[in-house]
Design goal:
The chain has 2 domains: 61 residues, 2,3-Dihydroxybiphenyl 1,2-Dioxygenase, domain 1 (Roll), CATH 3.10.180.10; 53 residues, 2,3-Dihydroxybiphenyl 1,2-Dioxygenase, domain 1, CATH 3.10.180. The protein is 17% helix and 38% strand. A 4-stranded mixed sheet has the order 1-4-3-2, covered by helices on one side. A hairpin with a 6-residue loop joins strand 6 and strand 7.
């Protein structure tokens, strides 16, 4: 049986830019950072609230994957927050543009979307 999702892997086009985004702007904690010389690739392990969650990879010339219009496969990555409006304000102050606030028609919870430096759709969803 599966216990839980262990991590999500993200391949980025500009390692330093994405590292800055996830660490300095979103506030994820760096657990480990490795440079794999044989692959000319970085691997960065990130945590949210002390839980290992994201692997950020860099590879030379990765192919682009469309996300808009919505493409087949994994749609987005969602993060739970206590207060969506406060997070929208915090993100916008860092020049991270968010979509208009939405209300989930099934749960009545607030949520919105924004993107990482490579256009990966990210969501914040009210606890």
């Amino acid at each position: 049986m599966f216990n839980r999702i262990h991590h999500v892997a993200i391949i980025c086009s500009d390692y330093e830019k994405s590292k800055d985004f996830y660490v300095n702007k979103l506030g994820f904690k760096v657990l480990n950072e490795f440079y794999r010389a044989e692959r000319k690739s970085y691997k960065l392990d990130l945590a949210i609230n002390e839980h290992y969650q994201i692997e950020l990879f860099s590879f030379k010339n990765p192919p682009e994957r469309p996300s808009r219009p919505e493409a087949l496969g994994l749609r987005h990555l969602a993060f739970e927050v206590d207060n969506v409006e406060q997070e929208i304000e915090r993100l916008n102050k860092q020049n991270i543009i968010t979509e208009p606030l939405r209300i989930d028609e099934f749960t009545d919870k607030k949520f919105t979307f924004f993107t990482d430096p490579d256009g990966l759709p990210l969501e914040i969803y009210e606890k």
